[in-house]
Amino acid sequence: MSDEQPNDLLHGVTLKIMLTELVQEYGWEEMGKRIDIRCFTHAPSIASSLKFLRRTPWARDKVEEMYLRRKM
Which of 45, 66, 68, 71 sits at a 20 to 30 Å CA gap from 8? Predict the structure, then answer.
């Protein structure tokens, strides 16, 4: 196991899978309240959010944290 991977719950889970599951459970409005980023609050879509999250490490970290909290 890599030191960079703090939890096995993320092993094999893509960012797209995480985002899709979170949106299905919470919806875009709640996602925008929990993680205040424009791609969740203004004309949100999976594609635009993935593009932003892939190039913005701090935002991706917040999505991963939210996903992990949901799984625990």
Answer: 45
Q: Residues 16-72: pLDDT tens digits?
A: 999 999 999 999 999 999 999 999 999 999 999 999 999 999 999 999 999 999 887
What separation in angstroms does the CA of 49 have from each of 2, 5, 22, 58? 27, 23, 12, 13
* Residue 7 CA: distances (Å) to CA of 62, 66, 68: 15, 13, 9
Nearest to 14 by CA among 72, 60, 62: 60
Prediction pTM value: 0.84
